[in-house]
Specification:
- By secondary structure, the chain is mainly alpha-helical.
- About 55% of the residues lie in helices and about 10% in strands.
- It folds into two domains: about 180 residues, no CATH class; about 35 residues, no CATH class.
- It has eight helices and four strands.
- The strands form two sheets. Strands 1-2 form a two-stranded antiparallel ribbon.
- Helix 1 runs parallel beside helix 5.
- Bound molecules: zinc ion.
- Zinc ion (ZN) binds next to loops.
- This is LexA-binding, inner membrane-associated hydrolase.
Length: about 220
């Protein structure tokens, strides 16, 4: 699933759950939910769905943080609970998506999300076949609608969320052509300039997902 889908899912849960917990709703908590939901996908350039995806670890830490918040009432602990809880929701729900590979619409691998406790990959359920699939956009749109229609998100935030949904839509339209588009854009750069730019090669490996090779000067 798209990082934005995860961000909106966490935000939707936050706007529904936080008012139930108490009087704690505010910009920082909503931002923590959204960014916490995006964060695990920062491992796209490392070993995707492994390096920063801890379905068990994040869930356990979020529960401990919430217990600590319940005992102390410290708002900083609630902020951490929301951020880690959002990352936990992301890591757990990735198992519903496709495999972590270059062309997940032509699946060859069974790598859904890595479980560091069991030391193995969970099989992808493929309800959402790949990040940027049409069904991924619909899920993203549904969660975004919950967040935007909630009175908890201020009007200024709703405008930003609207543009993020538009960005998700654009990504969905281009998803399968991203490689061709980046090659096309690269060809627009003059040859003299191109020799000064680093070459970046991203390779999928059998076991550990992705390696990145950056070289300067050709
Ligand atoms: Zn992910």
């Amino acid at each position: 699933m798209m990082a934005l889908t995860h961000g909106f899912a966490s935000l939707a849960v936050a706007v529904v759950v936080l008012p139930v917990i108490g009087d704690h709703v505010g910009g920082p908590l909503l931002l923590a939910a959204f960014l916490g939901g995006l964060a695990p996908d920062a491992d796209l350039l490392a070993s995707h769905r492994k390096t920063l995806h801890y379905p068990v670890g994040f869930s356990a830490v979020a529960l401990l943080l919430f217990a600590a918040f319940s005992l102390t009432g410290w708002s900083a602990l609630l902020l951490l609970t929301v951020a880690v809880g959002a990352a936990a929701l992301h890591a757990v729900s990735d198992v519903l998506g496709g495999s972590a590979e270059r062309e997940p619409w032509n699946p060859t691998m069974d790598t859904g999300v890595y479980n560091h406790v069991l030391g193995r990959w969970h099989r992808p359920r493929r309800y959402v076949r790949y990040s940027g699939a049409p069904e991924d956009f619909l899920v993203c749109l549904a969660f975004a609608t919950v967040a935007v229609s909630s009175a908890v998100t201020p009007a200024a935030a709703d405008v930003t969320l609207f543009w993020l949904v538009a960005l998700a839509g654009l990504y969905t339209l281009c998803r399968k052509r991203l490689a061709a588009i980046s090659t096309g854009l690269g060809n627009l750069v003059p040859t003299q300039v191109r020799t000064l730019l680093p070459t970046v090669r991203i390779e999928e490996t059998e076991t550990d997902g992705t390696t990145v090779d950056i070289r300067f000067g050709r």
